[in-house]
Amino acid sequence: MMSSGITKSTGLMAVKLTALGRPQLLLQLSEVIMRARNYMQQIAGGTGNVLTHHKTIEDFQRYLGEHSSKPEVQDFMKKITSDKEGIVHLFPWSNILDKDMNLSDSFRVPDPKTGQMRRLISQISPKEEEMFRNMLRRLNNIIQVAAEADVRIMIDAEQTYFQPAIARICLEMMRRYNKGRFVVFNTYQTYLKNTYNEIVTDLEQAERQDFYWGAKLVRGAYIEQERARAAAMGYEDPTCESVDATTNSFHRCLKEILSRVKGERQQKLGIMVASHNEDTVRYAIELMRQHGIAPDERVVCFGQLLGMCDHITFPLGQAGYSAYKYVPYGPVLEVLPYLSRRANENRGFLSKIKKEKGLLLKEIGRRVLTGQAFYKPTGSYTPV
Question: What pTM does this model have?
């Protein structure tokens, strides 16, 4: 409600899903999603999300052969989410998120060899099932209150071992709430090698299921944890190998998104470029120009952390672009871990302090020389 009152229906609020429930459950759900992808790979060949294989229910039936006539397999087939272009999801997530269904019984697939239904998730206790319901209930309540107050919710990205579940839940919330306007935004970390593919898949899902797709594009926040875990567990490092590779990834993702801002989908795509990198901000503005996207259209906005890179945020606002300051809110002792992590992530930002000091001194000198000590810049800044 505070965000709504201050921002007059232009507000955005960030939420971490791991703060709403037990992270271990998100880890287990993420493992289910990866196993479902591997299962689909056996059927379709190739890698990628279930959605990208474009396999139909009929393809599934042919693959299972005589097993497809078994009652439990037929029941499974009826629950698959699909459309004329093929299978979208193996599991009915709307039912899982809404109804009192046991996760252990919901995430089951037919074994191709025997036709017997097998679990993709380990047995979950009734207490853990209740924790999962509580997590989703809290998220639903937050989104509903935000929608009523005309505030948009950005669900933050987290570590890769949680992210598949977070992204999937976020997409389901988009499908539910983003029907006539933007309410829920997902977050994509471009320092991950697979982010471009994930974005393309989610854009396709949004188009096929006709909902508004909103995204916050960031570089990423957990690189040291990701690399340490990959080394300890012996799997490929999921992060880009260098800063330049991450920047290229960011720009590639941004270019792909803005290339789709046309036709019927033009008003149904929205993105926040959350970056302290001046070159990335310039690149975004140039892409907007190339695609004929005006600053006041409801497509692109920019975001920087409070206290960082004011020399980027303020000129954007004065030029008519939607510019936001990301404001951590809460008792100092509780937000200090967050702030210290942000300072550590933005070590490169410290080198920009000298530039910002220079700009401030230059502006003070200009005001003294021109007699405009109390000069107040004016602009056409109205957030959209």
Answer: 0.87
